[in-house]
Amino acid sequence: MTTSASSRVPLSPTPRSTPTRLRERARTDRADLDAVLDAGLVCHMGVLLGDTPVVLPTVYGRDGDTLYLHGSTGAGNLRAALAHDISVAVTLVDGVVYARAAAHLSMNYRCAVVLGRAVEVTDHAEQLHGLRIVTEHAAPGSWSRVRPPTTKELAATKVLALELTEASVKVRTGGPKDDDMDVATGGVWAGVLPIRQVWDPPIDADDLAAGITVPDDVRHRGEPGPLPTH
């Protein structure tokens, strides 16, 4: 389901996905959307449950211009996601921006918002493909070594596909944007406190059999360079 770069729709193609505030932070290259989605681990999916908007955290995976989501067939939020357009947001916080004035305190961030109507994946092969994409996004290298889903497990799992047609990306970088009078007054520290995600050493399961070692892709996750291949 991958899409060639030349045929991809530009970002923010509709009024509801076009940023109206701080437009200088908007990104129009779809590579920026890919980068945010690929770097995140959890998205927040907004659905309408009856008359109440609900935002739910969930894992996801991207394959080209398709975003895959999954959950239990008994989950009301997934049924609601098929009845109306949904919103999916991924936010990565890169630092806290300390300014000299309260009004200018901020965050350095990368944020993507996707809008659209999700569809249920009913084809068996694509359902497995979607689950593989989600699994490999959360735990790269796992799909090839774990037991695949059984027929019963697949029947209890709903897979949704959301095309990345209508989306927007905003990015803030750099230091505080203080007013000249606050800079001139001085006396207050200003700057950025960077944030980074760090993977700690893996912890064996309590019931792990003796002699089973941690896979290289788990042990070395987060290190520079490509993950070991299988």
Strand pairing plus helix content: what structural class?
alpha+beta
Mean pLDDT: 89
Describe the global form: globular
Could you tell me the strand content as a percent range?
25-35%
Low-confidence blocks of residues = 1-6
Please count the helical segments: 6
Order of helical and strand elements? EHEEEEHEEEHHEEHEH
**What Rg is obtained from the alpha carbons, in whole angstroms?**
21 Å
Q: Report how far apart the termini are.
A: 23 Å
Task: Report what the structure shows.
- The protein has 230 residues and is α+β, with helices and mostly antiparallel strands.
- Helix content is 21%, strand content 31%.
- The protein has 6 helices and 11 strands.
- Strands 1, 2, 3, 6, 7, 10 and 11 form a 7-stranded antiparallel β-sheet that branches. The protein has a 4-stranded antiparallel β-sheet with strand order 4-5-9-8.
- It is globular.
- The two termini are 23 Å apart.
- 21% of the residues are buried.
Which tags fit this structure?
single chain, four-stranded antiparallel sheet, 6 helices, 11 strands, 31% strand
